Amino acid sequence: MEKNITLRLRFYTVANKPMDVVLHEFEKLKSEIEPDYKIKISDHHIWLSLGILKREKYSPHLHLQLERMEDGNTAVNGLYGPDPVLWTLFIFLHFLVAVFFFIAGVSAYSKASLGQPFKIEIIIMTTMIMAWFLLYYMARKNRKKGIPEMHQLQSLMERIIH
Description:
Helix content: 40-55%
CATH architecture of the largest domain: 2-Layer Sandwich
Protein name: GTP-binding protein
Keywords: Membrane, Transmembrane, Transmembrane helix
Strand order of the largest sheet: 1-5-4-3-2
Organism: Flavobacterium profundi
Low-confidence stretches: none
Number of strands: 5
Transmembrane segments: 85-110, 122-139
Number of helices: 4
Strand content: 15-25%
Order of helices and strands: EHEEEEHHH
């Protein structure tokens, strides 16, 4: 796996162990690292995150999907992602910005067609564009803050995988 996880939030690696061994080792690790880290295991999926006492709003989660390979090894597909609650909030805010932008655009078009002034609608649309850039900036900032924690989760994963 590439060491620069800041640019690759998705990765693929191979564990030179059978899938059952990998799952069992994560199960053992689960009891050793609590409450600092949280591990959830369901079928062939593993979620790694920081424990509730260490977690911040920008703390990432690591989702691992394990697949059996024909040679007996285990393929590991990993994905770093934000806290689901924070992700939902950001999606909702993006949706609101888009709705306000669309409504203001339709209103501006209607008023322009009728020959009425539409300065307020242009101000609203400009504000929504600035709000979108603000949301983008906040998301990038939160992702950057979470990089040290991504490295912690990666080293935790590598204790078992490699």
